[in-house]
Amino acid sequence: MIDIFITGYLRPQFTEQTIKYLKERTKYPYRLFLIDNGGNAQFREWVDFYIGMGKNVGIHAAWNIALALAES
Q1: N or C end of the chain: smaller count of CB under 10 Å?
Q2: Which helix (H) or strand (E) segment is 4 a member of?
C-alpha cells in the first residue's frame, strides 16, 4: 500500500481535479491524505484521512505532518 498526500490552500478546483485524477488512475492500493491549510473541507468525504489545519501553516509544516503519518 502506498500513501498519497495532498496539501490544499484556497484552490478547491485544483484539489478536486487532483483527487479525481488519482482515484481514476491509481491502480495500486493506497491511502489518500488531504492536509487542509484552509478552504478544502468540502473534500473531507473524498479522502481516507483529512487533516484540517484551520489556517495556513505553510507547505513545509504541512509536509512535516504528512511525513510523520506516512507508513509506506
Answers
A1: N
A2: strand 2-8
